[in-house]
Amino acid sequence: DTEVTQTPKHLVMGMTNKKSLKCEQHMGHRAMYWYKQKAKKPPELMFVYSYEKLSINESVPSRFSPECPNSSLLNLHLHALQPEDSALYLCASSQDLGRDYEQYFGPGTRLTVT
Amino acid sequence: GDSVTQMEGPVTLSEEAFLTINCTYTATGYPSLFWYVQYPGEGLQLLLKATKADDKGSNKGFEATYRKETTSFHLEKGSVQVSDSAVYFCALTPYGNNRLAFGKGNQVVVIP
After folding, report:
1. A42 chain-B contacts, CB cut-off 8 A
2. Are strands B86-93 and B106-111 parallel, antiparallel or unpaired?
């Protein structure tokens, strides 16, 4: 099973709201990722967790706050977002860090900020 | 830095035609190479991969060969179907980490 699940599928939020995106995998993978994808563009890396610790933060604004409660779960907490943050947010996981470990992506959460 | 270049523009072709999408890369050392596919409204799916020179990745009728001498990883399929309509991304992970570097992607439209 190579499934990564994400909830919710769609999210509409105002600029003053607080919401969270959730990602789950049961493949025993020890690395998990958040990406942002704008229309007709490739995904852009936001955060990487390795063994439940934040490994990479690609200079993402603090209105995005990641959390890894355990090895299967990854959350992205959203607060005071801007309309330009509207995008598809993708979660991915891989067995470990290292060039040979392919990343498996979830279906994404389509976020609209009004 | 490490980068991937895909041919410009969408690709439109008829059902049962031969598909080629060009991908070249720039990287230090020996990257791993991937093709991902994104169907409308969905996330990315790993299509195939190759981790060393002359490796051929294959899946669902798609193939790509890791060519170190030409730094290329072109995607091919002998006979496309309407269901192959999607965006295809070439990507690499450089030696030493698995930070994916994506190409810009190619929209493929297959007409019945």
Report:
1. 89, 91, 102-105
2. antiparallel
